[in-house]
């Protein structure tokens, strides 16, 4: 996770297919880097997961395999072929073996990958940090820190002084570091790939063994000496003392500085995101079909009951429930969604904001502003807590989505900055400690209900804040508490299929019904 999260990297995104951003999108991005490390020539792959982590029990059912295979093939996270990636991998002549072994992993989403072809063997260890974000922590036995937000050039060598002197005099770079181990390399982080001429000059040096070029996998790149105007809510309020800006305007200030782009570009980038979200909701309300899932297209039934005036509650609330359901159903049928902030919680935020805006008959620009407001609340969560259910339970996913949505809804209703922050604080307070226990090892139930709960909680908290209810605990302190509570949730209740509703008799019966033939890639240690 970047020290300074980007709204478009870490909070609203990625655009993807699959049940889980932590598993599908993140694994695909890790595998894309693996592909580059092997110069796009992979023949044999060994993938290892720790038995005590999340991946050991979810790698097949929540899409880690699918994402990895797609990444090894060089695909994007929204590629329509992803559900059949296993077939395409075999056609490409790539052999895969998966082992569940004690790899001494500290993080529950740790991938240890060995890659081979006829000429070489490379090793890479990486973690999924939540919401599709990744960090490569080791390459060929040497510790590194790569988030996929730079062009990374690795110059494998026997000696570094000549190489580093040449590079510093010849190229524009963000950082140059020498990593020494059994095999050593110079790592160059830069905004663009090294010129072919530079690579040729490097290859001509006696100390250079070979060069690897890894392309960025994130939409917004980092840069040297990156600065943002604030990174906590407290700092944001201090920054805004003499500006009197709304939350969405502050979001633009932040992301323009973080991404080094104009305010207009930030706004239009978010517009493209809400178009994808809106399209997913529309598709969901037409009905979705997919064999390998637990829940059918339930939003159609809700839509019929709502039209017949057979439901309790106001139009906005019921519309929100319907939209949340539609979005989750598109996700579960392998349609294209935006992980906001994660795939498992992709319904709560857009469902709440689109439902409210449509009930109020607001212009599209207002949804863009609300999503920017929500995104900035997400920045504070990403920087100081987590979006990964494997680390913080469902509180980190649907809880975060609800807190972000509450701030956005206040903006849609014309509330103040203070009220937006209070709404986010109240909503996050209400979601502390929610566990992650998917039924049948699928990200469908109780995930759908928790997305609905998060969205309707957002509406309630927005109305409380608009009525000037006291938040009591400042937003920054609530986010700190989220992190502390997440650390205390037992690992069996953090997306491992080992606790909660996941291990009820009914859930195990559903899981057995869904179980396919044994994974042919899997072998015991």
From TrEMBL:
Which protein, by its recorded name, is this? L-serine ammonia-lyase
One matching Pfam family is: SDH_alpha
Record SUPFAM superfamilies? Serine metabolism enzymes domain (SSF143548)
Which Enzyme Commission number(s) are on file for it? 4.3.1.17
The cofactor required is: [4Fe-4S] cluster
Question: What's in the keyword line of the UniProt record?
Answer: 4Fe-4S, Gluconeogenesis, Iron, Iron-sulfur, Lyase, Metal-binding
Q: Which residues form the Serine dehydratase-like alpha subunit domain?
A: 243-501
* Domain of life of the native organism: Bacteria
Q: Pathway, according to UniProt?
A: Carbohydrate biosynthesis; gluconeogenesis
Which reaction(s) does its UniProt entry say it catalyses? L-serine = pyruvate + NH4(+)
Give the family from UniProt. Answer: Belongs to the iron-sulfur dependent L-serine dehydratase family.
Please name the PANTHER family in this protein's record: L-SERINE DEHYDRATASE, L-SERINE DEHYDRATASE 1
Stored Gene3D superfamilies: D-3-phosphoglycerate dehydrogenase, domain 3 (3.30.1330.90)
What is the scientific name of the source organism?
A: Runella salmonicolor
Q: GO molecular function: any one?
A: L-serine ammonia-lyase activity
- Keyword Lyase listed? The answer is yes
């Amino acid at each position: 996770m970047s020290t300074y999260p980007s709204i478009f990297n870490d909070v609203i995104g990625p655009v993807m297919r699959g049940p889980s951003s932590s598993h599908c999108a993140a694994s695909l991005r890790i595998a894309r880097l693996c592909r580059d490390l092997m110069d796009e020539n992979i023949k044999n792959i060994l993938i290892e997961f720790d038995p005590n982590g999340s991946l050991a029990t979810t790698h097949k059912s929540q899409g880690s395999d699918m994402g990895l295979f797609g990444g090894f093939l060089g695909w994007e996270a929204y590629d329509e072929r992803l559900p059949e990636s296993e077939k395409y991998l075999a056609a490409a002549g790539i052999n895969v073996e998966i082992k569940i072994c004690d790899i001494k992993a500290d993080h529950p989403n740790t991938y240890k990958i060995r890659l081979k072809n006829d000429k070489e063997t490379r090793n890479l260890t990486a973690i999924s940090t939540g919401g599709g974000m990744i960090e490569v922590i080791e390459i060929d036995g040497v510790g590194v820190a790569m988030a996929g937000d730079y062009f990374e050039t690795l110059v494998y060598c026997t000696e570094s002084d000549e190489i580093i002197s040449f590079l510093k005099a010849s190229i524009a770079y963000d950082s140059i570091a020498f990593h020494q181990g059994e095999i050593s390399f110079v790592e160059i982080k830069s905004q663009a790939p090294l010129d072919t001429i530079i690579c040729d000059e490097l290859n001509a040096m006696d100390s250079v063994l070979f060069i690897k070029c890894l392309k960025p996998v994130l939409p917004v790149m980092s840069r040297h000496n990156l600065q943002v105007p604030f990174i906590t809510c407290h700092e944001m309020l201090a920054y805004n003392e003499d500006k009197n800006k709304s939350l969405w305007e502050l979001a633009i200030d932040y992301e323009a500085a973080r991404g080094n782009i104009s305010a207009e570009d930030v706004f239009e980038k978010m517009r493209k995101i809400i178009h994808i979200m809106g399209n997913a909701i529309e598709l969901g309300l037409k009905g979705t079909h997919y064999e390998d899932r637990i829940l059918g297209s339930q939003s159609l039934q809700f839509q019929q009951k709502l039209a017949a005036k057979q439901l309790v509650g106001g139009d906005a609330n019921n519309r929100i429930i319907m939209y949340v359901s539609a979005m989750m159903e598109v996700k579960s049928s392998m349609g294209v969604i935006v992980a906001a902030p994660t795939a498992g919680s992709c319904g709560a935020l857009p469902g709440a904001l689109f439902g409210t805006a449509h009930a109020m008959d607001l212009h599209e620009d207002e949804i863009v502003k609300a999503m920017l407001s929500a995104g900035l609340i997400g920045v504070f969560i990403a920087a100081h807590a987590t979006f990964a259910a494997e680390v913080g339970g469902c509180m980190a996913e649907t809880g975060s989505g609800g807190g972000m949505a509450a701030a956005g809804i206040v903006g849609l209703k014309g509330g103040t900055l203070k009220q937006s922050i209070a709404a986010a604080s109240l909503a996050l307070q209400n979601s502390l400690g929610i566990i992650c226990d998917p039924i049948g090892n699928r990200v469908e139930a109780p995930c759908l209900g928790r997305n609905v709960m998060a969205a309707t909680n957002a509406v309630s908290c927005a109305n409380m804040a608009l009525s000037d209810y006291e938040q009591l605990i400042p937003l920054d302190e609530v986010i700190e508490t989220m992190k502390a509570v997440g650390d205390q949730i037992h690992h069996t209740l953090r997306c491992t299929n080992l606790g909660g509703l996941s291990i009820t008799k009914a859930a195990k019966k559903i899981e057995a019904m869904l179980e396919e033939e044994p994974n042919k890639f899997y072998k015991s240690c």
